[in-house]
Amino acid sequence: MTDTITKLFNIQYPIVQGGMIWVSGWKLASAVSNAGGLGLIGAGSMYPNVLREHIQKCKKATDKPFGVNVPMLYPDIEQIMDIIVEEGVKIVFTSAGNPKTWTSFLKEKGITVVHVVSSVKFALKAEVAGVDAVVCEGFEAGGHNGREETTTFTLIPMVKEQVNIPVIAAGGIGSGRGMLAAMVLGANGVQIGSRFAATKESSAHDNFKDTIVSVKDGDTQLTLKELAPVRLVKNKFFNDVQELYKHNPSLEDIKKLLGRARAKRGMFEGDLEEGELEIGQIAGLIHEIKSAREVIEEIVTEYDIVKSKFI
Predict the structure, then answer these.
(1) How far apart are CA 207 and CA 293, in angstroms?
(2) Where are the domains of the chain?
(3) Can you identify the CATH homologous superfamily of domain 4-203+286-310?
């Protein structure tokens, strides 16, 4: 395995757990870190005081490196960044915003910064901003996504061709075979979200975990592009959105239907009808809820076996 990412984060395997909203609490982050990957706490669904609590609990649960994923559209972003610094977090993944805004601030505090991008254009901007690595996320990924709809396997080699910093592949990766394929295309490591959403330590509701396991190909789709593209399971809420589109809705009409806390309602509270269920296309290959350690061991073992056969 490449040692670029393992050295950057001081971890055993170049596997990063996605910092997903309503899914990535301290239990999941610490479990992934304890198993040799890099666990991330998803700050996007946490009030500042809740994030502080999760960071503190994670520090008690693991002596391994872990990080925090911060969507920069967060309304309390200044408070979030101050808490990250105060609590001594050493790794931050930023997303959904301009990397120039916070990269210098974080790096001045000795923090390793990684930015999530969906195109070559934004990867180059992140490199200029001074980030230590980029996560290149294809539109197979669950949750909020790039407008370009570029697939992971085309995005990775295009970005790798243009930047001089480490590249972490994300979107549609949930196995050792997928990890190896991403590496062959130039990735230095992988970020995996959906597979870790369906683990015992995930803070997702059991209803949502069971839904992930039952998802088949074609059961998810990118929608709500006028607001922020998001990949969802096709449930009643998704169908309501599609029905609304038939009537040429205004942006306000779409916002009204979306309402508030749809993602929490679906993924955290388990409302499979009216909730927003964010998951990636790779869910079609997830058939069992396992521990985070079992997932990592399975990925690494498969990676080594497949690599020995073909490379």
Answers:
(1) 22
(2) 4-203+286-310, 206-281
(3) Aldolase class I (3.20.20.70)
Q: How far apart are CA 24 and CA 37, in angstroms?
A: 14
R_g of the chain computed on alpha carbons: 18
Tokens of 134: 């980029």
Pairing label, strands 220-223, 230-233: antiparallel
pLDDT tens, residue by residue, 205-223: 999 999 999 999 999 998 8
The pLDDT, as a whole number, for residue 290 is: 98
Q: Could you report the per-residue pLDDT of 74-118, keeping only the tens digit for each? A: 788 999 999 999 999 999 999 988 999 999 999 999 999 999 999
pTM of the model: 0.94
Q: Are 163 and 134 in contact (CB under 8 A)?
A: yes
CA distances from 290 to 20, 149, 294 (A): 18, 30, 6
Secondary structure class of 39 (helix, strand, coil): strand
DSSP state of 199: B
